[in-house]
Amino acid sequence: MEFQDEWLQILRRCKDNVKLRIQPLFETLSEPQPDLGKGAGGDSMKAVDLAAEKAIIEVLQQSNVSFTLISEESGVIEFGAKPRQCYVTVDPIDGTTNLVRGLPFYASSIAVSSEPVLSSVYAAMVADLFHDTTYMAHVGKGAYRGDERIAPSSRLSLDDAVVGLDLNTYRVREIAPQVTGLIEATGHIRHFGANALELCYVAEGLTDAFVDVRGKLRATDLAAAWLILREAGGLITTPEGDALNVKLAPTEKVKFVAAGNPQIHRTILKLIQPRKRK
Ligand code: IPD
Ligand code: CA
User: Fold this and answer.
1) Where are the beta strands (DSSP E) in the chain?
2) What is the pLDDT of residues 193-251, one digit of tens each?
3) Which domain covers residue 234, as residue numbers?
4) Does the C-beta of 68 come closer than 6 Å to ligand 1?
5) What is the pLDDT of residues 24-70, one digit of tens each?
6) How far is ligand 1, taken at its centre, from the CA of residue 1, in Å?
7) Same domain, yes or no, for 73 and 193?
8) Residue 93 and residue 218 share a domain
9) 207 Cβ inside 6 Å of ligand 1
10) Same domain, 213 and 172
């Protein structure tokens, strides 16, 4: 219990420090952003991404933990005397484009694991930085939004469901045919632009499911929300319905179907199975 509280407190302090450190950069967001090169995950880095990452590292170091950082920006870095003691997988800002454009939907995502693999994540936080809402989970202890325990939706039918769908890819012609059946069957399709946070919306039942079959999302973006959704009682698998067995590495990509309950999850899996060629 003490160990669990300790991690959740550290993660909360990371969120506070990220907010503090990125605040001064908001004034310059309307100006052209300098090119800071590509991060370990392959995307261009912005000053806010680096400031948020630095803020997280600062708190972890102040907390005297030895850890291996696995970050979308700086990649894999060992800190302290026993860096294999735990792995801290970070997407410092999920939804950077939203943040830079002033769209109020972006988050910091941090997952703590005993190995650099998704299945060993045991503590997690996704912090909605605009609304100051914090989603947290510890393995076996449920998922929380602030102090309130959260649970996903029990909606069974897609007719009136709200389903997140990320089709944000230049390869849309190739990907779209896999999801047209789902779009046709679903009452309301959404995509907000920060996938970690969108998974937390499934965890808390604001949406009923979230699907990303692009093969473009990084494991670093998903790691924390994976635990939060499962601890809330939701399901998240590959599009084939298998467990998500991914390495935690900045270049590792993932496809998934996340849903609030087994019935709607099954319905979605059936709809997105690759069509057989005639
Ligand atoms: C992005 C967001 C977005 C998704 C992109 C991700 P980032 O994260 O989650 O919704 O469509 O694929 O890269 O780059 O802002 O950390
Ligand atoms: Ca990011």
Assistant:
1) 67-71, 75-79, 87-94, 107-113, 121-128, 133-138, 143-145, 148-149, 162-165, 188-190, 209-218, 235-237, 253-259
2) 999 999 999 999 999 999 999 999 999 999 999 999 999 999 999 999 999 989 999 99
3) 162-272
4) no
5) 999 888 787 777 888 888 888 889 999 999 999 999 999 999 999 99
6) 33
7) no
8) no
9) no
10) yes
